[in-house]
Amino acid sequence: MNLYHLRYFVTLAHLEHYTKAAEELMITQPSLSHAIALLGKELGVSLFEKDGRNVVLTKYGKIFLTDVEKALEILDSSVKTLKMIGNGEGIVELAFLRTLGTDFVPKITRDFLQENKEKSIEFHFHTGVTGDIIEGLKSRKYDIAFCSKIEEEQSIEFIPVATQELVLIVPSNHPLADRDAIDLIDTISYPYIFFTKKSGLRPIIDNLFAQIGKLPEIAYEVEEDQVVAGLVSKNFGIAVSPNMPMLNSMDLKVIQILSPSWERKFYLAVVKDKYSTPVVQKFKNFVIEYTK
């Protein structure tokens, strides 16, 4: 079925006159008549019938018109959207760790939009833990992400873009609360709240304890930074945590870790060797330059 013939059909249905419709479409009347005849023959029904000098839709023509107009509207909308995307516009599905949602992500996306304010660009924001974010990238649910690095994920490109200090957090009434700095070995006797294995932080923290050759009692395992901090503030245990601004407003003590020291890195993550729309590629390049 010829797409042009469908558009001819819609125009004729509204104008109800072959000559006027042919002029509107800038084709000859015989060409229009031939196209409508071919369409009717393919469908096996008459779409128009004469009404004096005009033509009007048959019962089946009216049914067909409703569906054709819906189909053309969907098609035209899709074409328009894809042309916008090809022009560096459209939606960016961005996933990130919640700890980056208070400052880093809002700032970098706002600056990108400001630099491209002549374009129609929109971000859809998604949060989660690193494991889920990586799966979302691989399933193409997300276009690009900010998360921790998972070494064994060979299909993902990780580009370092930000750092965050790791600290020890304890309840404000804890025996260690009078310390401003501490060696991790001096915390072994206290129960810990750990991140789950789905978290990009877990292998980093495991490595810290491997360096001192000791493993503390793990009382609880949770996924989110904020939940870890909340449990610590209510005396469920102590934890190694990213040094987040929100910690300063909670009922807990933030203690610098002297040894072993570690700085958490955050990465821009994209799937290798897969097509990215121009706007996603542009945002990726912007982030790389922005964080140099």
Automatic annotation (TrEMBL):
<comment type="similarity">
    <text>Belongs to the LysR transcriptional regulatory family.</text>
</comment>
<keyword id="KW-0804">Transcription</keyword>
<dbReference type="GO" id="GO:0003700">
    <property type="term" value="F:DNA-binding transcription factor activity"/>
</dbReference>
<dbReference type="InterPro" id="IPR005119">
    <property type="entry name" value="LysR_subst-bd"/>
</dbReference>
<dbReference type="InterPro" id="IPR036390">
    <property type="entry name" value="WH_DNA-bd_sf"/>
</dbReference>
<keyword id="KW-0805">Transcription regulation</keyword>
<dbReference type="InterPro" id="IPR050950">
    <property type="entry name" value="HTH-type_LysR_regulators"/>
</dbReference>
<dbReference type="InterPro" id="IPR000847">
    <property type="entry name" value="LysR_HTH_N"/>
</dbReference>
<dbReference type="GO" id="GO:0003677">
    <property type="term" value="F:DNA binding"/>
</dbReference>
<feature type="domain" description="HTH lysR-type">
    <location>
        <begin position="1"/>
        <end position="58"/>
    </location>
</feature>
<dbReference type="Pfam" id="PF00126">
    <property type="entry name" value="HTH_1"/>
</dbReference>
<keyword id="KW-0238">DNA-binding</keyword>
<dbReference type="Pfam" id="PF03466">
    <property type="entry name" value="LysR_substrate"/>
</dbReference>
<dbReference type="InterPro" id="IPR036388">
    <property type="entry name" value="WH-like_DNA-bd_sf"/>
</dbReference>
<dbReference type="GO" id="GO:0005829">
    <property type="term" value="C:cytosol"/>
</dbReference>
<protein>
    <recommendedName>
        <fullName>HTH lysR-type domain-containing protein</fullName>
    </recommendedName>
</protein>
